[in-house]
Amino acid sequence: MKEVIKVVSCKELKGEVSIAGSKNSALACLAAASITPDENPIVLKNIPDISDIQTMIDILRSLGKKVIFENGILSMSGEINNSVVLPEKSKKLRGSMYFLGILAATTGEIYCGIPGGDKIGKRPIDIHIHGLRKLGVNFTSENGEIIVGKAEKGLEGCTIYLKYPSVGATCNLMLAATKATGRTVLTNVAKEPEIVDMANLLSKMGARITGAGTDKITISGVDELHGGVEHEVISDRIESGTLASIVAVCGGDVLLKHAIPYHNFPIISLLEDIGVKIEASDESLRIISDRNLKPVEVEMMPFPGIATDLQSSIALMATQAKGDSTIVDLVFQKRFQYVDELNKMGALMQLSENNLIIHGGKKLRGCHVFGNDIRAVSTLIGAGLIAEGETIIDGVIHLKRGYPDFDKKIRKLGGSVEIVAMDI
User: Fold this and answer.
1) Which residues pair with residue 141 across a beta bridge?
2) What angle do CA 121, 92, 367 make, to 5 degrees?
3) Which of these, 98, 94, 86, 80, lies nearest to 32 by C-alpha position?
4) Which of 45, 276, 299, 345 is most buried, taking the most CB atoms under 10 A from its CB?
């Protein structure tokens, strides 16, 4: 017997659900909270209860941090007392890349397995290594399964240019620079809301950071950061975009509570272009769709562009549009693995390297499909809701990594989605 996701076609979705805390921001904020040795705890609110968060907590505890997590509230205190993150731990989580910056800022010694995560193409850490080396980390190994480095003379501020605005590298270098001597200037950095959220937490802890949310961040190093602060993590713009796309193809009228319009404006603009009505207030989005969707041409880009994490959701909408759509994604080369599964369900898509052409207006039919990453699984759930018959999705482990109670939220809106055990 194996856990799978069973989805049955529905007519439309109606009602309201709340968007969870951001997975990507929560991981970054856990990293930030870990670099102070203060016994006075840092309290993080709105933390999603997903397996990626549990994995991050397990690694932090193995390094000596005291972590309590219950009902979306996480308390962290204590000192990191070792510098070893073994490959069997790091490979479970892409967010384990943050331990490069964490260990550089705390112990000055790095012994960390190569990060894991979704298999969506090349995810090099050379930008992380380059920046940390400029700050003073001498790496003796950066290949194979283990990254080994040591800041023998401590960390020293400098100017670092990122050859690509990597979110992970921006976070790592911010972490390390908070404890570096002097001033660090990071240029061509990521501008994502998750960067701003992490910077806000670090500032509450005593860090001196300016420019987060722009392409240049300046950090003036301090001797110590402190605990005794509270911080609420922002809501998950990827979950809100994913749910909005599912409402778009199913049709209906849904209120997404705790969705921040500014963080979602790139996908809001696309949804309006594709034919979906959006009503935005301070902390919510109302999605109204009559399923009369138009084709689109879109390229996935770093914020303020449309996030690559929403690529498969946009492709699903394009399968139901009247006409041909084009999606280009140069961020991750293998994020298109869901294409074969949607084609198996009756979609007509043609992939050439990083360019996807979708011939819309095809009816989908339920079958057995496989979701190989977090975003693919949620997209296949949306496909199952509009497909004739029953769809069985293999990929529960990925759903639990990224979305808390996603199946329950769809059921609350009137959809039929269940996690069941089957003999397959």
Assistant:
1) 148
2) 65
3) 98
4) 276
Identify the domain boundary among 232, 264, 293: 232
Are residues 214 and 258 both part of a single domain? no
Close Cβ partners of 204 (under 8 Å, ≥ 6 residues apart): 229, 231
CATH number reported for the structural domain that contains residue 370 in this entry? 3.65.10.10
Q: Which pLDDT value is given to residue 116?
A: 66
How many of the other CB atoms lie within 10 Å of CB of 109?
A: 16
Q: Which domain holds residue 336?
A: 2-20+235-422
H helical segments located in 107-192: 126-135, 167-177
Nearest CA to 18 among 312, 348, 256? 256
Q: Are residues 182 and 86 in the same domain?
A: yes
d(CA 149, CA 58): 22
**Is 415 found in the same domain as 289?**
yes
pLDDT per 10-residue tile (average), the chain, 424 residues: 94 96 97 96 97 94 97 97 89 84 95 66 75 95 79 95 95 97 98 98 98 98 96 97 98 97 95 97 95 96 93 97 94 80 97 93 96 93 97 93 93 96 83
Question: Is 393:380 a contact under the CB 8 Å cutoff?
Answer: yes
Nearest partner of 123 among 334, 312, 311, 310, judged by Cα = 334
Based on the domain organization, do 306 and 417 belong to the same domain? Answer: yes
Cβ neighbours for 352, distance < 8 A, ≥ 6 positions apart: none
Q: Do residues 46 and 283 touch, judged by C-beta distance below 8 A?
A: no
Are 390 and 380 a contacting pair, CB within 8 Å?
Answer: no
The one-letter code for the residue type at 356 is L
Which amino acid makes up residue 207?
A
Question: How far, in Å, CA of 322 to CA of 336, rounded?
Answer: 22
The residue assigned the tokens 């709340």 is 18
- Is the same domain home to 261 and 206? no
Going by C-beta distance under 8 Å and a sequence separation of 6 or more, which residues neighbour residue 273? 294, 296
- The contacts of residue 134 (CB under 8 Å, 6+ apart) are 158, 160
pLDDT at 333: 64
Q: How many structural domains comprise the chain? A: 2
Structure-token pair, residue 101: 């910056």
- Note the pLDDT of residue 119: 43
